[in-house]
Structures are given as C-alpha cells and as structure tokens.
Amino acid sequence: MRQTLTILLILAAASVSAQQTLSGTVTDKKGEAVSYANIYFEGSYDGTISDTEGNFSLSTNLTGEQLLTVSFMGYEKYSQLLHLDGKDTILTVVMKEQLSEIDEVTITAGVFSASDKKKSATLNSFDIASTASAMGDIYGAYATMPGSQKVGEEGMLFVRGGDSYEVKTFMDGMLVQSPFFAKMPDIPTRGRYSPLLFSETIFSTGGYSAEYGQALSSVVDLTTNGMETDNKTSLGLMTVGASASVGRRWENSSLAFSGLYANNALHHKLFKQNVDWTKDPVMADGTLMYRVKVGESGLLKAFCSYNFNAMEMNYDNFEQGTMDPLAMVNNTLYANTNYTGELGEKWLIRTGLAYSRDLEDITYKGDPVNTTLSASQAKLVLTHLTTDKVKIRIGADVIYEQYGQEIKMDSTFSLDLTDIQPSLFLESEIKLSKKLALRLGARAEYTSLLESLDLSPRIAAAYKTGKNSQVSLAWGKYHQRPEAEILKFAPGLSAERADHYILNFQYRNNRRIFRAEAYMKQYDQLVKYRDPYDPDPSNYNNNGRGYAGGLDIFWRDQSSMKGLDYWISYSYLDTQRDYKNFPSHAAPSYASAHNLSLVFKYFFTRLSTFAGLTYSYASPRPYDDLNSQEFMSGRTRSYNDISMNITYVTTLFRNDFIIHMNITNVFGFKNEFGYTYSSTPGADGLYASQAVIPTVGTQAVLVFLLSF
C-alpha cells in the first residue's frame, strides 16, 4: 500500500492553499488549461504547479522585485517581473507552444509515455498515481492501457500475448532485476517503486529502441526525478501502516528520504480474506535519493532502496487435498548511480552503475528453499548531435549476474549460475523533414552462459499525415535469455526470439488524443519441457513457437467537460503458442481476447476534492479442463471490476492535510482466474475442480497525510 501515498503527495502539490499571496491560471493561446506547469520565483525555493484546470496558488515571504517563471515542456518559457508588496495578486498566464511540438513528427509506434515534462506524453505521473484501480502502482496504471492483459492472480504486466517474464523494467536506463515484490502462489504482487519518484515513465508495448535488450514483449523505463524543488516533510497514517518522507534542497544538491512500515493485520480483520493467513503480511522499505549538479550542465543522481516483506499461510493444495504451511521472507537491495552531461558542443554523455541483490527464503511444509539473485551493471551511452535533424547514439553495457538456489529436503541440493552479458548498440534518429522521421538501430549482445551472440536490427518511421495526425511503423528482432529457473537445469539452451511488426495511427488536438495500433509478433525458439521440475537437461529444448496479433484502441478527452478527464482503452488479442509443457498450440491461460478499461477523474475545485472511477473488463480466459479431451478448452467467467477513490484537501495547523479513501471492486464481482484440479479422478471418473479466486472481494484503504 506504499504507493497509495503518492496520490496524496501529488494532490498536495496541486491543491489550493488557504494562505495565498499569488494565484491565477495558466492557459495556452486557445484558452485551454495547461495542467501541471511549473511556477516559481527565480533564485528561490518558492514554487508550485498548476492543477488539472490550470489554476495555481503560491504563498511566499519574498518582497520587492521578483521574477516569476512558468515552464512546461512543449511551451516557451514564460517570465514576468512582479513587485511583491504583501497584497494578493491575481495573474493570467498565456503560454506559447514551441514550433517543434506543433509541427514536427515523432515516432509513437508501440510507445505510451507518462511525463510531467513532455507535452507529447500520453499520461503523466498524476495520471498514474490517481488511477483508482491501480492504487498508486505504476504497473497497475499501465494495466489500464491498451496491450495489457488483466491477470488478477499475478499483479505483473502481461503484454500483447507475452508472458510476464517477457516485460523488463529499467531505471535511468539501467536494468532492474526485481521490480516486483516477491509473491506467493495465486497472491497478486505489485511494483516496488512509487510513481512519485519518477518524472517520466515509458511503457513500450513493442518495437522499442535498440538500447533495450533481453525483453521479448515490452519494456518499462523509469526516469527518476531531478533536484528537489524545496524543503518538505510528510507524515502519513493508514489503515495498513505509517510512512514518513523528508526532502532537503541546497543550492547545487538535494537529498530525499522516504520510509514505510505496513502491516495487514487490521486490514484482514476488516475485510474477509479468501486465504488462510497464519502470519499477516508485513512490509518495510526505505528509499534514498541524492542529486548534485556537476559543472554547468551535468547532473549526478544516486538512488538506493531497500525492501523487506514477509508472510505465512496455509496453502490450499487442492491437487493433493491438503492445507500445506507456506512461509516467505524477502529482502531486496537496489542501488543506481547515473550521470548525464555534455562533452563539448556536439556530444552528450549518459553513464551509470547499478547493483541489486534479492534474497528470497521460502519454506514449504518445513522444507526451506533459499534463492539469491545478484546483478551488477555498467553502462555508457554517447549521443552525437550531428545536425539539427540527425542524432546518433552509441552505447555499451555489461551485466554480471549470479543466481544461487539451495533446497533442503532429505538432503541439500545447490544450483548455481553465473552469466556475463556484454552488449553494444548503435542507433540514428533522422528527421528527413517536419513530416517524416526515421530511426535505424541495431543491437549485439553476448551471453556467456549460453555461449551465443545475438544480433537485433530495428527500424521505426513516422509520417505526419496532417496538422494533428500521423502514422508510425516499427519492425525489429528481439532476443531474451531463458529464465534462471530453467537455466539452472539446462544452461545449454538458446535465447528465445520474437519479431515485432507495428502500424500506428495517432490523432491529437485540443487536449484529446486518439490512437489505433495494429501489431503482429512471431515467436521462435521458445523453451519447451515435459516436466518443469525434472532436472535432466534433455527434458528442455528450444522447439517452441507462437504468435500474437491484434488491435489496440485508445481515446482520451480532457477538454469536453470542465474538471473531467477520462480515457477509454480497448485491446483485441489473437494468440497461440506451443511452449513449456503444452502438447500443442493453444492460447495461454493469461490471455483474454478482449480487454476494456474506462478511467474517469473529476476535480471538484470549490470542494478541494478529487474523485476517480475505473471500470475494467476482460473476456473469459482459457484454462486446461482435465475433464475435457481438448487442451485448454475451459473458459473462466468474464472479469469485471469497478474501483473508486476520493481525496479531500484541507489545512491543519496551516499545513496541507489530506484525507484519502480508495475502494477496489466496489460491487463485489465474483471474479475467477482459472481452475485447479485434483490429482486423481473420483468414483465417477471425473476430476474435482476448484476456482482460483481473488484473495479478497471488496476492500478499502483510508489514509491521512500531513505535509509541511
């Protein structure tokens, strides 16, 4: 529940303070509101952002002549000299769009971005944090976007017919090995990191840049925040725990710390659980972010986070007809250092180091299984600004990964892996005209464990068909090393492969956006096996195949009704694959043909209240019915969910005070995610079955947050 707080912190920044000295609105030339514009006095730490309707208020102790600056990506910077004499001031700020944002084409095939800086972004950090069904989870918010599958028992991203392991997460360009909290069987997990930590996130559903490797289906790239804007402290109290955060800003550096402790004991008493918990889940984490300016243009960023979570349950082993004790303890450390700057007039540099260590201890029926995954990465990317129309990037990175697993049963079994993955990429971005853009790239990556070198060419192009519309194309080859859980038995396998083909149309005008994207993916060399627990290497091969094709539709409207923001996303998916222990081609159990999300948000300005509503639908998913002779012939019920949140912003002791409630599955839909079967048939020759259902029906979280 840590991410729930991000909704409140972002709303606090956009709220109307009772002590105002400067207020007004930020609009474009057409009178349309410019939301989330940065408003500040030059040379001070006094600043704020505009709300969803472009309104802002800013209290300050400054006096005399002061330069007010308003900025937002895609617009020219606005500056006005003000004389502050202690009296309230009302302003109307009209911003001019930059010509490059109006006229020039950008490649959009397969990419959804969330940014507080880019005008061309589809979402921003507020959208992610305030989506009711996501409860502040980055991946939960992107699950409402086209291309995503709703897989409620997992909580991870499943994209365009791909399995969850085919999605990779990067932070400031560095691979994040364990982006999700550790999970138990049929218990959904969530992302480890709050969207409040990032100024931009990119969700690519295919056709992504040559910079990204080892991802068959999708990448999520998180860009951490820059310098803190001012000194701030927040304290939070929730029905599931407590939190605190502190940010400090100096002239050329800043430091931010956040911490959280969560315990679900009270939550489980208030809301009936479909799990026999013997120890309620507990979680503690801390995040530290340090930023320092280097020279005139350089910025050094250091990020470090530690997560702990633990839980115990009696696992319903329906297959054997037993309730088995199952316990899990997980400790994860992730550290990332990143530098960006200039090397002369024509060169830009981005370089970084990252280290992660994930310790997972699972005890099943008294037998411990201890798994350790550690990884180190070094990366360098150089960008040459050849001309104002041509940009060339060249990069190299190396990942050193160690995997170890110890299983203690009647005796002790140890399984260890070490892999070194060096890679190179070269990519050029060429704007042939204001209407035509081209991106050509190639990636080469070597895997020491597989003893293989893979080459991945990639091409993308975009053509502007009108003032507000464009068409994009993308094609590329992608490779990914098999999972460690398989390689520990069969390290001699080859990389899995996928070819992406994408055609995208986008129309954007007057704070409305429409996207339609058709795609096809061809899978090759997928891993197959007879038994997932057989340690014999001959049990595994790369003979798997598959395909996924479909159509994604997205519509967003922020201007038809004052205060209302909504989007609609729909995905059609046709997919089959022959992988793992499948006897033939079939749609996998996580794939539903139709997915629909309706997301509504409304800001009641006079009441200082924000409300959100999300409706999610997924058509029936396939599962293997053991009482049928046809493989994967069973179908679940359709998935339905309505979630909502409401936030009230006020003041307490002259400080921002927020009360927030988030309710999921408001109407208690009886969803199911598949079926498990008994290992032996009954007297009638049929196998007894039991539905896999959510851990809880309707649930709510109440949060109080004080910021000062």
Describe it for me?
- The chain is mainly β and 708 residues long.
- Helix content is 5%, strand content 56%.
- 39% of the residues are buried.
- The strands form six sheets. It has a 22-stranded antiparallel β-barrel.
- Mean pLDDT is 89; it is low at 1-20.
Please give the structural blueprint.
Elements: H1 4-14, E1 22-28, E2 38-41, E3 47-49, E4 55-58, E5 64-71, E6 78-84, E7 89-95, H2 99-103, E8 111-115, H3 125-130, H4 138-142, E9 167-171, E10 174-176, E11 198-204, E12 218-224, E13 232-238, E14 241-249, E15 253-263, H5 265-270, E16 276-294, E17 298-317, E18 322-343, E19 347-364, E20 367-384, E21 390-408, E22 412-431, E23 436-447, E24 452-464, E25 469-480, H6 484-487, E26 496-509, E27 512-529, E28 540-557, E29 564-578, E30 594-604, E31 609-618, E32 622-623, E33 634-635, E34 639-652, E35 655-664, E36 675-677, E37 689-691, E38 699-707
Parallel strand pairs: 1-7, 9-12
Antiparallel strand pairs: 1-4, 2-3, 2-5, 5-6, 8-11, 9-10, 11-12, 13-14, 13-38, 14-15, 15-16, 16-17, 17-18, 18-19, 19-20, 20-21, 21-22, 22-23, 23-24, 24-25, 25-26, 26-27, 27-28, 28-29, 29-30, 30-31, 31-34, 32-33, 34-35, 35-38, 36-37
